[in-house]
Amino acid sequence: MIQTRSYHGAIIDECVAEGSNKIAYLILPERLDTDGLKWVEKTSAAYNFSIAIITGIDWNNDLTPWVADGLGKKDMPFRGHANFFMGTFIKDYITNIEDRLNIANASRTLAGVSLSGMFAVWAAHSCDAFDNVISLSGSFWYEHFAEWIQSHQTAKALERVYIAIGDKEKKSKDSRLNALLPCTEAIVEDMRKKARLVKFEIEPSTSHFSPLIPRLEKAFEYIYSSKVEGDGDDD
């Protein structure tokens, strides 16, 4: 059953797997629709893990690690509040959610798409709260991000990392977005030194956000399936 509540201005949709210490935190730009929430319940039961979906945050600012120009000439700059948001996320969101759901010694996955996909990889280098990371179309084009990841260690050794981009994202008229593929490939190679298992996919017929649910399905299967062996690419 999905439980929904407001917390610190955000909306949190939760699905609890009773008796499991596994929980995934999924940060999205907007709430899933009814079919999406039904998929959450099905997936939580299939792999026996709880899911907390967080929406309603200050997307462009809470998830960016430092100040950078906006993508468009008229767009506001990214303000780079990730450090502050991460403190709130760990101290308030995680503590409150896991206390309420009675999850002890949690094994945590942090998952995101676009800016939250970038945030998930950054967070693994900035705190030791997470065991697994999922990044779908992570905004690795962000100014100096790939170089920063390559020059820092994760806070602890990761178990599994799943990174994917859509094949429709590989080329863009915007010079920064056009750097997505090489930046992603550089980060994947670096993450292979920092995690036990890493999977990278370039997904056919996929754009930046769409389709979301099939991509999340593949990501959670990789993180939580006991059948996964080795690492590699399907690109």
Question: How would you characterize the overall build of this protein?
Answer:
With 235 residues, the chain is α/β, with parallel strands linked by helices. Helices cover 34% and strands 24% of the residues. The protein has a nine-stranded mixed β-sheet with strand order 1-2-4-3-5-6-7-8-9, sandwiched between helices. The protein is globular. The model has no long low-confidence stretch (mean pLDDT 93).
Structural class: alpha/beta
Total strands: the figure is 9
* Low-pLDDT runs: none
Q: How many helices? A: 7
Could you give the order of the helices and strands?
EEEHEHHEHEHEHEHE
Shape: globular
In helices, the fraction of residues equals 25-40%
What does the largest sheet look like?
A: 9 strands, mixed
Radius of gyration: 17 Å
| Amino-to-carboxy terminus distance | 36 Å
Instruction: Output the strand order for the largest sheet.
Output: 1-2-4-3-5-6-7-8-9
% residues in beta strands: 15-25%
Mean pLDDT: 93
Write the SSE topology.
Layout: E1 2-7, E2 10-15, E3 22-27, H1 34-47, E4 50-55, H2 59-62, H3 82-100, E5 107-113, H4 115-126, E6 132-136, H5 145-150, E7 158-166, H6 180-191, E8 195-203, H7 212-224, E9 232-234
Parallel strand pairs: 3-4, 3-5, 5-6, 6-7, 7-8, 8-9
Antiparallel strand pairs: 1-2, 2-4
Helix pairs in contact: 1-7
